[in-house]
Amino acid sequence: MSNPTKLSLHVPAPHARPGDPVNFDHLVIPAAGELRCPDIATPESQLRDLPFGLIRVLDAEGRAVGPWNPSLDPDHLRRGLRAMLLTRLFDDRLFRAHRQGKTTFYMKSTGEEAIGAAQSLALNATDMCFPTYRVLSWLMARNYPLIDLVNQIFSNEKDPLKGRQLPILYSARAYGFYSLSGNVGTRIGHAVGWAMASAYKEDDKIALGYIGEGTTAEGDFHEALTFASVYRAPVILCVTNNQWAISTFQGIAGGEATTFAAKALGFGIPGLRVDGNDFLAVHAATDWAARRARANGGATLIEMFTYRAAGHSTSDDPTKYRPADEPKSWPLGDPIERLKQHLILIGEWSEQRHEALVAELTEAVRSAAKEGEAIGTFGKSRPSTREMFEGVYKEPDWRLIEQRRELGV
Amino acid sequence: MSNPTKLSLHVPAPHARPGDPVNFDHLVIPAAGELRCPDIATPESQLRDLPFGLIRVLDAEGRAVGPWNPSLDPDHLRRGLRAMLLTRLFDDRLFRAHRQGKTTFYMKSTGEEAIGAAQSLALNATDMCFPTYRVLSWLMARNYPLIDLVNQIFSNEKDPLKGRQLPILYSARAYGFYSLSGNVGTRIGHAVGWAMASAYKEDDKIALGYIGEGTTAEGDFHEALTFASVYRAPVILCVTNNQWAISTFQGIAGGEATTFAAKALGFGIPGLRVDGNDFLAVHAATDWAARRARANGGATLIEMFTYRAAGHSTSDDPTKYRPADEPKSWPLGDPIERLKQHLILIGEWSEQRHEALVAELTEAVRSAAKEGEAIGTFGKSRPSTREMFEGVYKEPDWRLIEQRRELGV
Amino acid sequence: MTNMTMVQALNSALDVAMQRDPDTLVFGQDVGYFGGVFRVTDKLQQKHGARRCFDAPIAEGGIVATAIGMGAYGLRPIVEIQFADYILPAFDQLVSEAARLRYRSGGEFWAPITVRTPYGGGIFGGQTHSQSPEALFAHISGLKTVIPSNPYDAKGLLLTAIEDDDPVIFLEPKRLYNGPFDGRHDQALKTWADHPMGEVPEGHYTVPLGKAATVREGSAVTVLAYGTMVHVALAGIEDSGIDAELIDLRSIVPLDIDSIVASVRRTGRCLIVHEASRFAGFGGELSALVQERCFHYLRSPIARVAGWDTPYPHAFEWDYFPGPARVTAALQRTMEA
Amino acid sequence: MTNMTMVQALNSALDVAMQRDPDTLVFGQDVGYFGGVFRVTDKLQQKHGARRCFDAPIAEGGIVATAIGMGAYGLRPIVEIQFADYILPAFDQLVSEAARLRYRSGGEFWAPITVRTPYGGGIFGGQTHSQSPEALFAHISGLKTVIPSNPYDAKGLLLTAIEDDDPVIFLEPKRLYNGPFDGRHDQALKTWADHPMGEVPEGHYTVPLGKAATVREGSAVTVLAYGTMVHVALAGIEDSGIDAELIDLRSIVPLDIDSIVASVRRTGRCLIVHEASRFAGFGGELSALVQERCFHYLRSPIARVAGWDTPYPHAFEWDYFPGPARVTAALQRTMEA
Ligand SMILES: Cc1ncc(C[n+]2csc(CCOP(=O)(O)OP(=O)(O)O)c2C)c(N)n1
Ligand SMILES: Cc1ncc(C[n+]2csc(CCOP(=O)(O)OP(=O)(O)O)c2C)c(N)n1
Ligand SMILES: [Mg+2]
Ligand SMILES: [Mg+2]
After folding, report:
1. Do the interacting molecules here have an ipTM over 0.95?
2. Mean pLDDT (whole number) for C94-106
3. Which of A234, B99, C254, D81 lies at a CB distance of 3.0 to 4.6 Å from A206, suitable for a disulfide?
4. How far apart are CA C286 and CA C259, in angstroms?
């Protein structure tokens, strides 16, 4: 067993770095409508090709084609478009607010708005999503008050999280949006537990857990999949593969070797791979998994194939590690443009109506921002310092009471 | 999206509990020689059927059949038989020693001896295995001195681990056997790191990491697979699926939903499923994965499909949770009997030679046990109490020096 | 009242909780059909069904994560970690999630979970079946940590922990499961049958968190202990002939600071006893608190008896384990100083 | 000698180590092409190649496990955990494996790894970019824990840590990366250019572990601090006008007990300052040690200034962060008592 070739350490590298021409040639993008849509009752053993395909409904012309076409009514689609646009405009405004020193931190979901929006509309009001920091559009689709977002981002007196949490790490129970935290990956197992609880109570609610493709490397993801598979939890586990984890490309998370949807194969649950910039495809795949879960068919893993068009956060400059024009070259386009094109094509939308909507939402964002600024931007206004000592436990013990006294608040 | 069926929580249960008739009907056991043996250079995308097959070489009559037949020379096979027998006899004797109060703890690998033995002989002296507590046969195949095992088990004055470690949690660097610990799963990532180091140094050594099927549920397993896949580490990751994790059947680890070999599919590495009670099949699969790794083909995951014939440990009584006659009903038989049958069939072994070997090894174990007892069984003899304070760091700091003084040793 | 071992008392607490509240459920490794490697969940699956008491995968982080999600939904999960040595894979879930959820969500979500786990030495369990991790949890704001020393408290404290709306780490001294143990390892095993705290009501009752118990009243020195060390300290006190007051903390978070301070101010001396390694152990915090609050009352240095700063060594169990002799010697030094 | 920020000094230490020893390599999240979110590994990949400095998956446990395996093979891996808040997923690997390997294997295997991670507050990082976990590591026998307070020490201590054959947790006070910070957050930012400890040799040198530095000599009271708090404590001392002696511990395991005891016996008073939550924090151990060894020299209670027992609250940064005013007030109380 002597060794002909010397061993060498393989370190994956992306196809293009700053200065290189953008290169997406390696991406295999099947045509819209190509992939089959099996019945939700199909056993996993007959679904093992799906993780290697790509569920796409909208073609290049904006036509909705193929077996996954959810044939949604136009109002529903317009709600989705509105949620995506609102997210985009809100992100741009609050990102600028950070540059103006009005908040300490911000993260955009630019380019990924279809995911949260379509899933929010595909699921029930009583279902619960366990978000990452990049699914603001879930809340937008459910009309979460903009002012509450702004107040949280400014950590001002009206901050619903009482100044305790970093900007954008929202919690909105009434909107089916679980508490965010700075740690990535640690809540994916909560989604599974929540879903198991719903099954335990013979309820009809299901859970949706999000995780970034980079974070799928965490053991939490594996343990969540294991519990979801073993106890057939009514949960949808969603990998948002936006190609990047800060400066690290998806190959370092395993994307060079196979798809993220293929992780489902190790747990005997269906794995769907979806064009995440295609509102209709995201909606259809989510609805398929939701119906399967509600029918006691258990968990589904969905890879949302998308692209992080903006920087990771306000602390990041993506031109340092990827070509500046990579975002606009993403072969699967922009989710807002694509849904808009479709609606216009089917005669349910127009450039004029679009401009009007942009104007309306821009104003809505502006006035929410202004209202928040009037209450106070970061540091200008904040909740009572007592809030620092509340909520550590249901009731504070002597340590917190003494310390609050020592601080004199 | 209203819910027709009420949700309900699924809790997997084994096919038979004490009092029930043994039931292995659900096991699909392909015939020996059936599964194809692809070239080691085959890309993973063309190997995705393998995790659902079963690599078997020895048929019911003891013939070696099919493309995986390693055609090993008889001396090699006899070495394997010897290592397995020695393991079996040593286990029986030292298990009894525990009943006699000569040690605090013991664990047998009865029924699983083929795995460590065949892999130890298939790999190079300079390769490193990262064992579980159930691969004693690895050391037996490399002629690790029995007396050192006995002394460690008795924690006596001559214990190579200086009384610091629980019985059977050996460490034997010179024999390619990494330090064991009571925690399960925590060393599988060390195997990957060790293999990456070998590749980093352009060395030719590879690593073998073991993990029980129950322990595959730990995040450590997923993280190890991720690193192994991303950096194409020259490592073989081996899941010993012996059907049980203490009282818990493999369904609770995900075995109800798919195979353990299928976990490889989520990482784009080959997944082989092997009859773990078939010495030839284990040897062949290990050799295949080793050659692939040494050729910079990266990691392979192997599921060793076997059965834990004994209790989990001296603290366990398996008749409390599974039918008492389940072990002897295991459809894939006993690894020692099967290799013996093969050797006799090919005219390289006989009942007489077998009896003589049993007698020789029984005596070897007896005299090693006696020698260890002469040095001292647990509590009767032990290393200097100073050893308690040594090896915490390379050099003790003032705390350990003061504490040793306080204890007066 | 019947006589129960600590295992039976804990089992009874789980059974009572499951009878009273359909939203309680129990899961962990080997806790289902088999009833747990220490038998604490014995027969719960038979009585309450596999839906309410089941085996979990070997994934401590996943067990706790799942429990947190169930808690967020509205259940009261009780999970078992087979040995406290194996709780570390769940440490991030306990610290970053269970402990923080209520605070960071502005009170929208919380984790009313109970994490039971056998801890401590004295059973020749070696490095990974003997450790005492309480100091790691005590440092984490948002967690409560409870450690009973007898069957009566074990049942009452566990019921309180289960009904508590905050996450509780419930450390069970495994050496006390089947009988009191005072560290005199060369003597015949004792049983709970002969111990007053082995008398346990069959039904529901609670013992509050944050209230210490005075096990022995005394005037010369205050001894602070919890878990197995309560019995060891008592033996050490007896051997010393010193009129020590022995306080069983029962929970270290919340801590009964008032009882501690009142006693030390009375005695003017203090000895802290724990099994965990000494350095940065919980004894450090206790010593600091006592010193800060009783400085002018102290007549001699606050002393600590604890495990050595080494891993838990298999063959040296009784050299590592802080037994009565070390307590006696420390008491004498404390009185002389 | 050139002037370096702490980031540059750490980067220089890594570069020097990689030049001197081909068996050293660096990996962690975003440390490769990008050079780390705090730029500590800047240009190392360009200089030494992707083989020796590369990005790692988002799996802290896997990063440490892989490093341990490499260490067992014979390399000296240096890994970065992006924030100390995210080291907990690796806690089990650090405690159950890295810290125990040498001991349990009878010296056959060991883990000569260095785990670098930015810790501490003062940057409005909120709950999960601000924590100080040193007490959790200090309790673990087998681990060493180092915390520099300036560029010169940072480079010398990091080189010592890398060359050390035991696992070292290297906590980098992120608030000091680009300039000293004394807690006076309303004042202009300072740079290392104006600080004597910003003068750093370009080449190889080491600063030993277990040797504290006396930052300020004084006779009235001994102040113990490390990391960012060294600068805060100094500011608090200046404001107080009290002639305090300030000791920078530099490493908490091994701990320079002799310097601590000698100073407190001279001053008769002691104040301990750390950023981490107070309860069961490392200050508890320091207080206990000083009390045990200096009891008869103490003229007032040993005091602690520390973070409150809450999660790290975003909007209340300067109410939580123990600033100079709290140090001054504590010093005054200590002198009056
Ligand atoms: C446990 C943990 N480790 C590391 C980090 C630092 N971190 C924050 S975001 C991020 C990248 C996450 O990438 P991905 O999962 O792909 O999500 P994306 O940002 O692309 O949506 C990292 C490494 C963290 N927050 N938590
Ligand atoms: C981290 C950790 N969790 C739990 C345990 C307790 N434990 C010891 S062995 C075992 C079962 C392991 O089963 P498996 O992985 O199938 O290995 P086998 O014993 O069957 O060879 C368990 C749960 C442990 N040792 N370590
Ligand atoms: Mg990403
Ligand atoms: Mg098993």
Report:
1. yes
2. 98
3. A234
4. 12
